Amino acid sequence: MKTWQKVSLIVGVFLVVYYMPLSSPRFTGAVIESLYMIQDYARLHVLTCLIPALFIAGAIANFISQDAVIKYFGSGAKKWVSYAVASVSGTILAVCSCTVLPIFAGIYKRGAGIGPAIAFLYSGPAINVLAIIMTARILGWKLGIARAVGAVIFSIVIGLVMAALFKKEEGERLKGFTGKTSGAFEEGRSLAQNLLYFATMVFILIFAAWGKPAEPVGFLNAIFNVKWYLTGIFLALLAFILLRWFKKDELSAWVESTWGFAQQILPLLFIGVLVAGFLMGMPGSDAGIIPSKYVAAVVGGNSLAANFLASIIGAFMYFATLTEVPILQGLLGSGMGQGPALALLLSGPALSLPSMLVINSVLGPKKTFAFVILVIIMSTLTGFVFGTVFA
Questions:
Q1: Is the pLDDT of residue 182 over 50?
Q2: Domain total in the chain
Q3: 356 closest CA partner among 273, 254, 236, 242
Q4: Which domain holds residue 322?
Q5: 334 lies in a domain?
Q6: Taking the CB of residue 369, how many other CB atoms lie within 10 A of it?
Q7: Does 56 reside within a domain?
Q8: pLDDT higher than 60, residue 179
Q9: What gap in Å lies between CA 354 and CA 356, rounded to an integer?
Q10: Residue 12 lies in a domain
C-alpha cells in the first residue's frame, strides 16, 4: 500500500469515528443489528455450511485432476454438457450465496472456464429444490415455476455472456492449465472410490445445512428431524474413507488447501455480513440503517424502476438459505408487486455484498462487475415481463 493510500485510510477512519452519530437510535440499533447478524451467521452457517464447503473446495484442488475439470468445464468441453451440469447443480445443494463460493473458487482455479464456473456460481444457491418448493407453496405456483425456470436459464445465459465478454483473457488463463495432470486419479484410487469420497462430503453438506420447513409435516420435515443422525453416518463413512484410502501427505495437502481457501474467503465474508447487517438488518427485521418501510414503498407496482430497485436490493442484501421466502411473503403483504418479487428472488439468493467481495478476490473487479450487472439487468427485465403478463 502506497503512502498516500495509508494516509487516506487513516484520515477516512478518523472522520468516520469523529462524526459517528452515536446519539441516533437508528444508527446504534444498526450497529447492534450487524453484530447480531454476524453472530447468527457464525452460529447457523459457518459450521454447518461453510466449513464443509471449504473442505470440498480443498478436495477439488487436490484430488480432482485438472484434466478432468478441463475435459468437462474447460474451453474445449462440449458446451451443452458443461452448462447443463453447472446449471442444475444447485438442485441438490441447499446453500446460500456465500457457501457456494469455496466450491466455485475450487473448480475455477482448477481449470474450469469462466462460463461454466459462473453458471455453477449462480445456480448453486438460486435453484435448490427446497427453495423452489417453499416458493411455490408459500408465494404461489407461478412464482415458484418462474423462479425455477428463470434460474436455470439465467445461469446458462449469464455464463455464455461472461465467456464471450472475456474470451481473450480466459484463453490466456486456460493456457496455463494445458497438459497438467495432477490429482487423485493418478494416486491409486479407483473412480468409484473418488466418487464415493466426494459424494460423502456433499451429503454431509446437504444434511448439515438442511433447514427447517415452514410446516412441521411431510417428507422435508422428516429429513429435518433426522438430519444430525444422517450427518453423523456420513461423517463416520468419511472417516473410514480417509483412514483406508488416503495417505498422510495427501491429507496434509487437503487440509492446507482448505486453510488457503478459508484465509481468502472467511475475512471478506465476515466483513460483508457486518456491512449488510448494518445497512439492511437481519432478514425480517427493521433494525438496519435503511428502514424497511422505504424498501417496501419503492418496490410496489410493476414499473421498470420498481423491478430495478428490487434487483439491486436483492443483489446487495444477504439471504441465508431459504430465508428469502418468508421475507418476500412479508414484503408482498406490504404492497410489493409480483414482478419485483420475482426480480428479488432471481438476484437475491445468488448474490450478496459478502459474496461480491469474495468473487472479486477470485475473478477481479472487471469480471465481478460484469457478473453483478448481468444478474441485475436480467432480473429486472424478467421481473418486469412476469409482472406484466401474470400479475
A1: no
A2: 1
A3: 273
A4: 35-390
A5: yes
A6: 14
A7: yes
A8: no
A9: 5
A10: no
